User: Fold this.
Amino acid sequence: MSISDAFAVASWRSQTWIILHEPTATMFSLEFFATVVAILVSGTVLQHVLLGAASDEPPFIKGPIPYLGSALSFARDPQPLLNRLQKTYGWIFTIYVAGQRITMLSDPIFGNRQVWNNSTCVSLSRFVTKFGAENLFKYTKSLAYDFEFQEQLTKKVVSVLNSKPLLMDMIQTLKVTYLSQIDNASRSANCDGDVIDLYEYCRHNMYYSSARALFGPGFPTDEVYRPYVRFEEDITKFLKRFPRFLNREGHNARQKVLDELTSFFMDSSRVAQSSVLVRSLYEMFTTSTHQSPADSSGYFFAIIFASKSNSVPAAFWMLANIIADAELKAEVESIIAKYYDPKSDGFDWTALVEDPLIVSCFKETLRLNANVISGRQVTQDFNVKVANQSEDHTQEYRLRKGSTIMMSISMLHWNPEVYPDPMKWIGKRFLEENKGNLVRHGEKWRGAYSPWGSGAHMCPGRFLAIYEAVIQLVYTLAIFDVEPVEDIPPPLIGDRYGGGVLKAERPYRVKLTRRKSPLKPVT
Assistant:
């Protein structure tokens, strides 16, 4: 993560400015320079020595290095650090990272839900602004700090995606477009044992389908696709604040996406063909004080990233894991065939989305691969009740104003107390008969499964995401026989920990053969 690097660089720059702008002749003397350095170093060391936490605050780990604290290990690969600290200190602790207090909370019983449901003492928008989302997507600081307008935008997204008629309208476009990507007129029309990269197949088809469903037929899909993929692949360089000359391709790709979005939103006839969601959000920009192209383009760039960077890999992992298990794949194919109606040449999508086995596979995919850190900025002191490995033993901790609280979803989802063999994908884990066995503690530990967060800022795209995954699964297995030619790759974690649904460490090659006859249910 870039948090430590950003604050370390900022500190170095500010200290250098002080030295270089001291208006005395002695500033160039070696003795003066050494004195200033000694004062700065001594102050930093003293500040580190005096760091601590009050008795009513969570356990505090200030780290080994003055000012940086635990920044280096946190930036390099947070997972081993957080796992070790969780074993030592429990479900809540505070680490010191480059001048910032970051409280990690992973209480599946009480704590996490309290924070997610708190809209008075913690702020999501302030957290996002603090860590520079506007720098990533290039919208203005005016928009970044207009928390009221951002909240209005979020409410509009929730209202549209929670409306079943509006959602189903987008899903219908999604289905038609996805099918067109793999039908008899597509580039996959003549596949006969072709070996492909399944992730590239999923990313291409889902990106095109989703872009059409959200932005309509006038969206420059082809022009945006490759630069967007390039930007996404270089995202860690942006987050770590690499200078432009070390991330030239990423910067150029980002600018290309922004230019295409600006061109799109300047053409009202093309915007008019987009979904209700995009049209209504854009209308809010045109009637607000945020009418610059940078604001609308940057905001919709963030919308694309927030959705595609998570839904594409989620849909991939679900399909890939089912394909990798021959027995499970046969069961899922039988379910798909069961809900196919040859008279209408269509599927009963409601039954498919609600089928217990398909739902279990989707939930298990998010449990294992939804590697998200849900963050909030603490705006005023408040107490949070945290369980100590049991709902019967709790303790209250004070979270101090100005600090940051982060809830790592993987610290909940990879808890062996709840999920035996937590790093293994088990498609049937969430079936009813496996409660108490593969999923433990039942309703008492409801926070142990929270891929969408919770409370007022629960992910509004969750209903669309499951349809995206199921549409891809159904059409792919209905039209093709898919066989793996190698083992499924491991997820890429490392410095991407907490950055969203995990990507695959390498391509996953499968053999794609177009079916000559339809699937048939197993009797």
Notes: The mean pLDDT is 87. Residues 293-324 form the longest helix (32 residues).
